[in-house]
Amino acid sequence: MNVAGIIAEYNPFHNGHLYHLQKTKQLSGADYLIVVLSGNFVQRGEPAIFDKSVRTRMALLCGADLVLELPAPFACGSAEDFAMGAVSLLHHLGVITHLSFGSEDGEQSIPKKAAQIALAEPPAYREALKNALSRGLTYPQARSIALCAAGLNEEEAALIEKPNNLLGMEYCKALYALKSPILPVTVERKGCGYHDQELETEKFASASALRKAIAELTELSEKHAWLSEQLPPVLWSFYRPEFCFPLYPDDFSSMLNYQILLSRDRFSDFSDCSPELANRLEKQALSPLSFTERITSLKTRQYTYTRISRTLIHLLLMIHREEMEAYRDNGYSSYARILGFNQKAAPLLRLIKKHTAIPLLSKAADAEKILPEKAKKLWQKDIFCSQVYAAGFQQKYKKTPPDEFRRQIIIQ
Prior knowledge:
Helix content is 49%, strand content 11%. The protein is built from 19 helices and 10 strands. The strands form 2 sheets. Strands 1, 2, 5, 6, 7, 8, 9 and 10 form an 8-stranded mixed beta sheet that branches. β3 and β4 (46-47) form a beta hairpin. The two termini are 22 Å apart.
């Protein structure tokens, strides 16, 4: 059978994601679609707007057959760690035939070419990257220059720096690094751009625009035009007040401020925190800023908003540099946690159990019994990250959040 993998955040799910699922099935001839979903924190360095169980249910209602969780250290990691964490999980299942990702132009050849250069790191690439970084350019700017020096033309390098193409390059690089037989498939992005903040009629909105629209609502049960225009009808009920509990970065400001006070003189121990960022954090450690205010106060020409946000999330979640190295050395995602599946996916689950090279985890309570010692470290960190999210949920809504050890697999 053909089984296509999709790496997603669904933050939140919208019509563009539905189009991607449907188009993936068409292009790959897939009998089943497996989604590797970021849990409660996402790659831009933020909490997910909705809990992972809510987003899992959304995915299953819209065509996914099986949803697995991407462990938090990779879900909120760099593009490289995010891609390797997710691709390694799919690769080790032993059943994936295709990996589908969105791109701005629907073109595979450029991400593949860039991936081969970035993985090989020829001398021209390394030298150009080093020189560009020494001039104070951001890493994305420096990488673009390095890719040109090693074989891409300027037009190709500019295309790679678009958000979906960049992740596509990292996915291809991960496939090459793993020597994986999985075939990449790309679906051209339709509608608004990745960072567009406005909702436009008759266009697929970006998830960024939808998060902004949700944040501006005073009553989520109101009938808003964007609800019917941008979301599959089957998901409209999720936006009733009794079901909809969005979280935002500033909901974690007090926890972040506390963590910063605890971590003074040790900021550079955390993943993604450079010596320069550590020094800047030290100077403002006593200032009780909101999460977004702190990002703005730390931002410089050299560091992007997202890079700083990821650094702060790593501080909040206590993700240390040495931990990340250990997770990478242990093969990145060293288990596959099931968040949910469709009933018709029973044959797929049997096939995975037969071929998987990593433990398939269906009950949190079983983790300590079935996971190897090194995989337990990643699992324990993932549970801690979910507990931080739960604390933010409880603080904001004064409701008891889902318990990780009682969380039921969603069966659709």
